[in-house]
Amino acid sequence: MHLPVFALRLLPLVLAVFAGGAAHAQDSGERLRLGWLAFESAEPLKAYRLLLPLADQGNKYAAYAIGELLLDGYGVARDAPRAVPYLRRAAEQEIPVAQERMGAVYYFGLNTARDYAMAAQWFERAARNGYAQAQGNLALMIQQGQGVPRDQATARYWLERAMAQNDANALNTYAGLLMVGGGGLARDGARAIALYRSAADLGSAAAMNNLGGAYRDGEQVPQDFDTARRWFEKSAARRLPQAYTSLGALYLQGQGVARDPERAQGYFRRAAQSSEPQAEYNMGNMYLRGDGVRSDRAAAQFWLALAAAHGSALAKAHMIVFARAGDATDDARRYAPAYFNDLAAGSDAELQMLVGELYIDGVIVPPDQAEARRWFDFAARRGDARAAERLKVLGG
Predict the structure, then answer these.
(1) Which of 253, 282, 329, 341 is deepest in the core (most CB within 10 A)?
(2) What pLDDT band is residue 15 in, cutting at 50, 70 and 90?
């Protein structure tokens, strides 16, 4: 386990608390020192044994370490119900890394109901105490309006505070905004690529994957599939699920490598082990269209249902159409009405176009021009010129 820089910087101060000369204090100080060293040296069980008595006596630094070990299940049995009280004890005594972890507890709903407002409060406490990861997390929540009012200027403020500390996640996020001109920033692809490189140099697997995507697509850099693959492989070496998906897509499409659907499927399955929705969607699409595998509509629906449940709008579009097929699975019939409402009422004309095209191409159900016209009409009403043309062709 990597001991946060915060803890290393505080360690001399922590030990100074016990330097008053009393034998008990000296014993406690030595125990704390050895416990931290074990924590830093990836000896979790030793750290747990040394620090648990101190945590139970109320030591805030030991409480953080014990909470971290129990929450992550690193070297000890994962136990969120036990972890959270230790983390809270440290957080309430202004330990920034513990405050950030409490934010994560509420954000992901670990041993509690998911509560974005509480998550934002804890992230803000840690951010105001200078903890870069919390500053980046808070920026994203403010940017998306999760538990706090959406405010792009405030989001940029916290993101830039984290960047000033060379936080790799913040650099990667800021680069993503610059790439598309989001978050109130002017589009600046050259600077985005430079920030992705900086984040990658600091070890950000997400930035490595994003650089690979830039080279694959020729976005702000010359298109180079070989360089793209190398970045994806670096990211995958750090076990980023999206990187496995990216590699799988290269092998499925034969971009800079020999087309190899079997190898592609292997990468998609690895990503799917982490519930990566694009990988699940790709698996479903391969089975649906018999792309490098034997066509299997039941398998297609299985993977598409997983992808849709994990948030893939592309998979939801396919499940809407599958619900009208004679071999529709129970999942397709059960969830299609909710997916229909989401996509029909949404503002994504491209997805609405996709549903229309799925009704035309006859792969999932026999061609149905009436349903196709309905979805093209949804898209046309949102200003999609292609949908308007399709309606003219169909006589709608």
Answers:
(1) 282
(2) very low
- Structure tokens, 324: 């009208």
| Residue 5 predicted with pLDDT over 70 | no
Containing structural domain, residue 354: 346-396
Q: Look at residue 373 and tell me if it is in a domain.
A: yes
pTM value? 0.84
Is residue 375 in some structural domain?
Answer: yes
Asked whether 315 and 284 are in contact (CB, 8 A), the reply is yes
Measure the CA–CA gap between 290 and 299, rounded to whole angstroms.
Answer: 11
Distance CA 177, CA 233 (A): 24
Average pLDDT of the chain is 92
**pLDDT by residue (tens digit) across 314-360?**
999 999 999 999 999 999 999 999 999 999 998 899 999 999 999 99
Burial class (CB in 10 A: 0-12, 13-18, 19+), 353: buried
Torsion angle of the four alpha carbons 233, 188, 217, 383, in this order, in degrees rounded to the nearest 10 = 130
* C-alpha separations of 360 from 75, 288, 354 in Å: 55, 16, 10
How large a percentage of the chain has pLDDT more than 70?
93
In angstroms, the CA 174 to CA 170 distance is 6
| Residue at 145 is within a domain | no
> What is the pLDDT at residue 34?
93
Query: Does 383 reside within a domain?
Result: yes
Exposure string (b/e) for 84-103, b if CB count within 10 Å is 16 or more? bebbbbbbeeebbbbbbbbb
Domain count along the chain: 1
